[in-house]
Amino acid sequence: MRRNLFLLPLLMISVVAGGNVLAKPTVDRNVVLKPLPHQEEASKWATTFLTRAHYKKTRLDDDMSSDILDRYLESLDPNRVFFLASDIRQFEAYRFGLDDSLRKQDLNPAFTIFNVYNHRVNERIEHALKLLDTEFDFTVNESLELDRSEAAWAGSDEELDEIWRRRVKNDALRLRLANKEPDGIVDTLEQRYSNLQRRVSELDAEDVFQYFMNAFALSIEPHTGYLAPRTSENFQISMRLSLEGIGAVLQRENEYTVVRRVVVGGPADQDGRLKVGDRIVGVGEGGSEEIVDVVGWRLDDVVDLIRGASGTTVRLDILPAETGVDGAVDTLLLVREKVKLEEQAAKSETFELQWEDQTHRIGVIDLPAFYLDFSARARREPDYRSSTRDVRKLIDELKKDGVDGIIIDLRNNGGGSLAEATELTGLFIDSGPVVQVRDSNGKIDVETDPERGVEWDGPLGVLVNRYSASASEIFAAAVQDYGRGVIIGEPTFGKGTVQNLINLDRYGRGDDPQFGQLKLTIAQFFRVNGGSTQHRGVIPDIIFPTLDMSDEYGERSLDNALPWTSIAPARYEIYDDLSAILPDIDQRASERLKQNPEFRFLMEDIRRMRESRDETTVSLLESERRSEMEQEKEQREARKQARAAFGTDQVSELQAVLRVSPEIEAPGTEPEVEVEVEVDGENALGDEEEERDTNVERPDVLLDETVRILGDIISLSNGTRTAQLTAKKKVLD
To answer: Are 160 and 609 in contact (CB under 8 A)?
Structure first.
């Protein structure tokens, strides 16, 4: 029986739908929140599903209670800068009783803890605001501990005062390094701290309930969660195939709102300056309204400011991913537009590689998601859109163009429809199983290629990275297990589970219960060879040395992630075995990358980002911070000079030749229209006209090398030894 499972991604917020700049708050410090009557019933249904319907068999016991308490405290005060050790000792009374409270629908412990938190936040903000009346001495050699998540809780108000003195001093120093005037520094920080106070004061009973139920859900498994009605609406927006806004998926990291993904075809993608990893530190409406500092804001509040109707504009202050916390802030002005499915659809381009007396044409199909227009298919529209249909058309076009090999680019493809992953695999195998799905009862269903025949039987490469997840991993794993192609790139994310949304309102009494939804893990998928992509991901046949195999990335970095396991393999027939030539292919790729200046730049950037991520303290000595800024500036200048030095020969070969224009688009799509974008506002470094490196069109060094690898495979698999290749430009009509 065919199922239309949808592999839900990690819960993040997509900036797609308008927000107004929020006024300075009037904070009522005496507000005491209490559970709402309907939340008791909602907790009953949520507890029932979490303990009885989850794929992972779970016992709500004292151990689970202890874990829930720790996660709840972490969600409220992750950096341990509000609660005192005395508060934590008070909360210990709940450590082994939250399981009993949940069974009784008693939510009072959660609200008691939150009300203490609310009081502590007000105390800290009042202290921080008073500190703005003092002058800081930036010649004192002291430092700030950046990550206190594992530190001991402060034992006294005086200890917390010192922690906050250094936090405020660091905030002031960062603005001072950005050439803010003293009055401007005070105004900015006063607004920042007051906004934090307002946001906490505006949290209501629904927010408290969501925090607590998510602490429960995350104690089971990282892809399980509770969505309050407001969050549920945001999630539904992010899952639609038609988006409206700037086209970016955001997540919260420490105090920053970070860009997790740029939606293909959206305003941010077309503008080209907003990158994955960039931090949004300010948001303003239109071209003239004040930009609001959003450091430390809740994610959904930042999203509310960024959202807006098509045709309106939003300004974003961006702290680029490649810079430190003191880096230059770029201001982008983006026009909100509707992101159409056509603009997110698969696209292709062709490369031509020349050997001594051979020419190989390589087609590349970029697939950003496994999409399917469910509504149009349900209406039985004959021309409904799907990734498989679009890729089939692109393959036909590439075959007419005479390509010798095809690459499917799944980088940053976070998944989508399971049916689409299965059907897309069927374009490259004649018949057979694609993925095995085991549910919470242990029942195993096998998803098979629904249609006999092969659309492309030639050489095939699949390019993946650490953000290729879920349905992408199903496709890549099947291609690898069948020996149908070569997987190239980084180990994938490792999300091998299936989630389902459960609308709790269906079980409530009354016309409008407003219970919210559960995102529940209900199944796990397995490769046809019996192994799981869960936790380990798909390990490429040719691994690019851009990412170590540590536990800091992907599924293996998440608490309570389900472990790798295996089941019996399915019956399938292997197409080919390239193991004999892969070592030679790998060596050739390694040698080329070592000689590639752009790859060296990439590895240098990765090294710096790792070093920045691993820093646990930051100096509060102005001279040292300015020295670090000067070093970063010198490094950027050295990079520009290095590019200029080899640009005539090597950049022209890699970029101007291998990168081909125009693209072959999926038949029937509309041409992309560039959105005009202006840059408003002064550079954060004052009069220095700094240009962000990412504004320069860079060669896609990993795609270029993947094309070369497939060229090697074509040649070696035909028994021909390859010489040093050169690239030749080919423009498609």
So the answer is: no
